[in-house]
């Protein structure tokens, strides 16, 4: 099992009170799944994704990643595991503005201390795969929103992760760009067997996966196959 959550709770102390963001979340995600997480604003979706990506830690509960107890790890070990196995795609792209497309793709490889010749080969492969060879020397400000998100997906993939976490990756894009990003994630899931977990408010995009986890008030409210959507109506 890739991911196992057991009674995960996240709370913040506010004076004499506690504010709960997540309450006793439990579920498993198998290797190669494509899972959509849905729920209203404030339901805990982003907090849950950050815990899954080891960018945050729960207040209570157990988290196993590749059967390793993340909840017992030091921050250094969690960071190491995150950098090795998890690719993140954010709504706001999070590209480095003063680096070119090539340099943005190379950055995660520098963190992993990949040798220069190997870095060059891996970046060239991603540029070719995402049809960005002609854009390798451009800066993020010179790209459209859809192109920036494509770079972000390529950057997440370049470390060959077991897991891609996408936090509303289509949120800043118009519909055709959003479709392109979701098609890319679906292709990575089916062809590369990369596990994908993404947050969305869009029923159509939730249908790209094989499973939907709905959160409400910090709890799992439902866990089911996606509801069929009339794609013509969704457009």
Question: What do you see in this structure?
Answer:
By secondary structure, the chain is α/β, with parallel strands linked by helices. The chain has one domain: P-loop containing nucleotide triphosphate hydrolases (Rossmann fold, 3-Layer(aba) Sandwich). It is 35% helix and 28% strand. Strands 6-7-8-3-9-10 form a 6-stranded mixed β-sheet, with helices on both faces. A 4-stranded antiparallel β-sheet has the order 2-1-4-5, with helices on one face. The model has no long low-confidence stretch (mean pLDDT 92).
Main sheet overview: 6 strands, mixed
Can you give the mean pLDDT? Answer: 92
Order of helices and strands: EEEHEEHEHHHEHEHEEH
Question: Which assembly state applies to the chains in this document?
Answer: single chain
Please describe the topology of this protein:
Elements: E1 3-14, E2 17-29, E3 34-38, H1 45-52, E4 60-65, E5 68-69, H2 75-85, E6 86-90, H3 101-111, H4 116-129, H5 145-157, E7 163-167, H6 175-191, E8 195-199, H7 203-206, E9 211-216, E10 219-224, H8 231-234
Parallel strand pairs: 3-8, 3-9, 6-7, 7-8
Antiparallel strand pairs: 1-2, 1-4, 4-5, 9-10
């Amino acid at each position: 099992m890739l991911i196992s959550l057991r009674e995960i709770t996240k709370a913040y102390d506010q004076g004499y009170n506690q504010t709960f963001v997540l309450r006793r979340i439990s579920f498993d995600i198998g290797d190669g799944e494509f899972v959509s997480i849905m729920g209203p604003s404030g339901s805990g979706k982003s907090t849950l994704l950050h815990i899954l990506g080891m960018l945050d830690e729960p207040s209570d509960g157990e988290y196993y990643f590749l059967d390793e107890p993340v909840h017992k790890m030091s921050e250094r070990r969690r960071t190491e595991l995150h950098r090795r196995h998890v690719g993140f795609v954010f709504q706001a792209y999070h590209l480095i503005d003063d680096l070119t497309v090539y340099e943005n793709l190379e950055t995660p490889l520098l963190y992993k201390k990949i040798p220069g010749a190997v870095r060059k080969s891996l970046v060239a492969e991603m540029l070719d795969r995402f049809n960005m060879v002609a854009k390798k020397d451009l800066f993020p400000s010179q790209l459209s929103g859809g192109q920036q998100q494509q770079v972000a997906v390529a950057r997440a993939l370049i470390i060959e992760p077991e897991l891609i976490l996408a936090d509303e990756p289509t949120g800043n894009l118009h519909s055709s760009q959003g479709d392109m990003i979701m098609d890319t994630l679906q292709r990575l899931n089916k062809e590369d067997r990369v596990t994908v977990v993404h947050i969305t408010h869009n029923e159509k995009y939730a249908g790209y996966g094989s499973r939907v986890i709905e959160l409400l008030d910090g709890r799992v409210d439902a866990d089911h196959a996606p509801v069929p959507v009339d794609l013509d109506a969704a457009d």
